[in-house]
């Protein structure tokens, strides 16, 4: 490469998926993608910026316009190899019949490598062979990408046979489904196309990985903050003598519901922006649990802990309270208070788990001198449901490739959610204990303890998000 920043021209025949591959690699949903062949007539450069510094650049190019005649000219060329592209463009730049070919080849003069994209769902044509031979004659480092879906592999063997004659590296890459790990694997393959660019591409890959890790930590912070703000919610409302207390309770419950919805939507928007979905919004099918109301019966049945886990959670919380009483009594109770506390906690949690949507409130409410005090949240299941929804949304966002444009289509929910329960139901007891201690801390009054518990939850979420992304 002639410059410190590596650059790759994404080339190919019109309507073969060039722009969608570039959009996914660059994480840029501003790339114009059109089903109409030949829409791209001029080159457009898309830099990848990390921490304010460009680490790599991709160039969207027009498709080949006249590959057979271009190849004939190059095969008849008698000049020095290093001037092949310069002399071709000089000879054809004013000819409309070669407009796209000249624009396509110009970045290669400036030192760009080549990423050649073809639609692997169709057979190899003579025109494709002409395009591949043109790119071989340029002498630039080059990779071939078969852009195809998992069920469109009938022609892969033939494509790969032809590619081996012309390219330094070959990848099968579904630009509509590519995950973070698959994008990194493609960049790793790019290192092999030319030894001279391997060191700079290694730096690029390190920058990508560091940036992804930083985004993972920020995502965990956003989710932790959401839980803190919702769980420690507190409000006070005046209740004048003679006023209907039940109506005021219902009003405050509705206000809390709106508050939680607003906070959750804000967190999801920030997660989407963090992963550079700035223009298009990933869509879910109508039956998705993420489109259900947070406080709907379906949401509470599908997400969060199951009944047995909730009982265990309540039992442990009650046992902790009982242990405090045992300690205060200098141990002479022989654990009686711990046993009673565990039974009461388990029973209370079981009731809350069954009845939360049929009357038992999420918020503690207390009437004190004509002041009705609300909060904090007194049911831990709400925390687990918010966690599940955040993890599901995170998984959706990171797995929605930027080159994907079928926004009216359904998302494969197998890709974004586990079988029947949410993620948290499968966590270990030690992981759930971190959540329980966090819940007890943020709904209590010990600020110092809450900070420690928040940090512990944050670290747990970093691990979980890293597992989800494969990073």
Describe the structure.
It contains 15 helices and nine strands. It has about 475 residues and is of the alpha/beta class. The protein folds into two domains: about 5-195, P-loop containing nucleotide triphosphate hydrolases (Rossmann fold, 3-Layer(aba) Sandwich); about 215-470, no CATH class. The strands form two sheets. A six-stranded mixed beta sheet has the order 2-3-1-4-5-6, sandwiched between helices. A three-stranded antiparallel beta sheet has the order 7-9-8, covered by helices on one side. Helix 6 links the parallel strand 5 (about 140-145) and strand 6 (about 170). Helix 2 (about 65-75) packs across helix 5 (about 125-140), helix 3 runs antiparallel to helix 4 and helix 11 packs antiparallel against helix 12. The chain is elongated, with a radius of gyration of 30 Å.
Features:
single chain; 471 residues; alpha/beta; Rossmann fold; 2 domains; six-stranded mixed sheet; three-stranded antiparallel sheet; 15 helices; 51% helix
Strand content: 5-15%
Helical content (DSSP H or I, runs of 4+): 40-55%
How many structural units, i.e. domains?
Answer: 2
Order of strands in the sheet with the most strands? 2-3-1-4-5-6
Total helices: the number is 15
Largest sheet: 6 strands, mixed
Q: How many beta-strand elements?
A: 9
The SS-based structural class is: alpha/beta
Q: How do the SSEs run, as a string of H and E? A: EHEEHHHEHEHEHHEHHHHEEHHH
Average predicted local confidence, pLDDT: 81
Stretches with pLDDT under 50, minimum 5 residues:
315-360, 407-420
How far apart the termini lie comes to 28 Å
Alpha carbon gyration radius: 30 Å
What does the overall shape look like?
A: elongated
């Amino acid at each position: 490469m002639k410059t410190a920043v590596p650059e790759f021209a994404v080339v190919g025949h019109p309507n073969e998926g060039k722009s969608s591959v570039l959009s996914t690699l660059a994480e840029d949903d501003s790339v114009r993608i059109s089903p109409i062949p030949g829409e791209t007539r001029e080159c457009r450069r898309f830099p990848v910026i990390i921490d304010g510094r460009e680490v790599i650049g991709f160039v969207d190019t027009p498709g080949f316009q006249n590959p057979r005649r271009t190849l004939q000219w190059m095969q008849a060329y008698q000049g020095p190899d290093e001037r092949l592209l310069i002399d071709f463009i000089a000879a054809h730049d004013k000819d409309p019949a070669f407009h796209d070919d000249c624009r396509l080849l110009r970045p290669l003069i400036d030192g760009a490598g080549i990423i050649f994209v073809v639609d692997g769902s169709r057979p190899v044509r003579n025109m494709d062979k002409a395009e591949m031979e043109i790119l071989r004659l340029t002498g630039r480092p080059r990779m071939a990408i078969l852009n195809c879906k998992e069920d469109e592999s009938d022609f892969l063997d033939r494509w790969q046979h032809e590619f081996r004659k012309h390219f330094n590296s070959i990848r099968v890459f579904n630009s509509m489904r590519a995950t973070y790990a698959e994008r990194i694997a493609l960049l790793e393959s790019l290192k092999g196309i030319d030894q001279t660019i391997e060191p700079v591409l290694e730096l690029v890959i390190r920058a990508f990985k560091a940036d992804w890790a930083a985004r993972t930590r920020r995502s965990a912070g956003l989710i932790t903050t959401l839980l803190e703000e919702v769980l420690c919610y507190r409000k006070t409302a005046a209740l004048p003598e003679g006023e209907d207390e039940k109506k005021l309770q219902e009003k405050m419950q509705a206000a809390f519901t709106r508050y939680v919805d607003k906070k959750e939507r804000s967190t999801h928007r920030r997660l989407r922006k963090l992963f550079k979905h700035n223009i298009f919004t990933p869509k879910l099918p109508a039956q998705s649990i993420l489109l259900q109301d947070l406080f709907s019966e379906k949401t509470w049945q599908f997400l969060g802990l199951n009944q047995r886990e909730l009982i265990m959670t309540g039992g442990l919380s009650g046992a902790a309270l009982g242990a405090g009483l045992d300690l205060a009594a200098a141990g002479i109770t022989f654990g009686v208070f711990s046993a009673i506390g565990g039974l009461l906690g388990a029973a209370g949690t079981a009731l809350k788990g069954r009845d939360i949507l049929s009357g038992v409130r999420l918020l503690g409410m207390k009437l004190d001198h004509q002041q009705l005090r609300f909060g904090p949240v007194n049911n831990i299941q709400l925390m687990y449901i918010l966690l599940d929804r955040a993890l599901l949304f995170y998984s959706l966002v990171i797995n929605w490739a930027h080159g994907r444009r079928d926004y009216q289509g359904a998302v494969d929910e197998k890709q974004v959610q586990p079988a029947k329960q949410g993620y948290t139901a499968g966590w270990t007891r030690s992981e759930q204990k971190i959540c329980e201690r966090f819940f007890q801390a943020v709904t209590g009054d010990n600020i110092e303890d809450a900070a420690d518990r928040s940090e512990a939850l944050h670290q747990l979420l970093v691990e979980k998000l890293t597992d989800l992304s494969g990073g």
